[in-house]
């Protein structure tokens, strides 16, 4: 079952990488990705309906970790599609107000689901059988109306909420990037870039590869720091705009050869310098 799921998610992420490179129009990209994600979900649903979970633990893993990764992409692209379609015409002030209102919606969702966020973010498990096993819902656990209208053979009471949490993180990054891009030519931003003590002269892709490596190694705050926070710090430090770093990371993952090209070059350069200093 996990092999089938991995094949589905790999195909989906490859499509994301291809479409992102080939399509510069955000609305068209979202339309195509919504269609592709729905197709993958249909295949996954058919597979689940035809194959039983071997254990309760397998079912929990599927609905807590696996399915939400795909559904979150559907939520994300649908949300970005709506945001772009409804974006008002006008100056920066009007557009910034609109984008900040969208950020406020994410904050309200967080506030309204604070207890579940705590449960999910702390990797708690004591409610997993009620949250992530089909037919085991508890009406006292803040169920969304959406659940009662969903297909209970392919849904639990909280798997969609996990997907929503994941998607909202990505939507927040997208909105913040939009606002940042609008500000980057402002006087304050220009001053910040000019006053930067260090200038990053390698490629942006290389810096993103380095950031993700440090995050994977849990180099900051024992791994509790979110990737978007680390990216912002690096951007401010070097006066650089890394843009949609998440999709750049997907491109790195989808490389056919040498997915850690920059890291390998760093290692080789350091070893060469050490050897030279030792007279080898």
From TrEMBL:
InterPro entries: Tet_reg_excision_RteC
Domain of life: Bacteria
One Pfam assignment: RteC
Descriptive protein name: RteC protein
Organism: Epilithonimonas mollis
């Amino acid at each position: 079952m996990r092999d089938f799921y991995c094949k589905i998610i790999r195909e989906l992420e490859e499509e994301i990488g291809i479409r992102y490179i080939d399509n510069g129009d955000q609305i068209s990209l979202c339309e195509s990705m919504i269609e592709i994600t729905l197709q993958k979900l249909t295949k996954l649903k058919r597979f689940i309906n035809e194959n039983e979970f071997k254990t309760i633990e397998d079912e929990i893993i599927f609905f807590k970790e696996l399915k939400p990764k795909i559904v979150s992409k559907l939520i994300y692209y649908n949300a970005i599609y709506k945001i772009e379609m409804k974006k008002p015409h006008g100056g920066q002030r009007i557009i910034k107000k609109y984008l900040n209102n969208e950020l406020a919606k994410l904050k309200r969702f967080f506030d309204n689901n604070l207890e579940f966020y705590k449960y999910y973010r702390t990797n708690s498990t004591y409610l997993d059988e009620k949250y992530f096993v089909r037919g085991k819902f508890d009406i006292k656990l803040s169920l969304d109306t959406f659940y009662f209208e969903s297909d209970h053979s392919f849904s639990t009471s909280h798997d969609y909420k996990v997907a929503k949490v994941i998607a909202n993180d990505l939507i927040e990054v997208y909105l913040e990037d939009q606002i940042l891009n609008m500000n980057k030519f402002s006087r304050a931003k220009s001053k910040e870039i000019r006053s930067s003590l260090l200038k990053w002269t390698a490629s942006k892709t290389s810096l993103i590869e380095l950031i993700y490596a440090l995050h994977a190694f849990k180099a900051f705050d024992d791994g509790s720091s979110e990737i978007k926070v680390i990216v912002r710090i690096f951007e401010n430090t070097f006066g650089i705009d890394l843009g949609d770093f998440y999709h750049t990371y997907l491109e790195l993952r989808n490389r056919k050869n040498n997915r850690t090209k920059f890291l390998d070059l760093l290692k080789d350069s350091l070893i060469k310098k050490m050897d030279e200093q030792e007279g080898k």
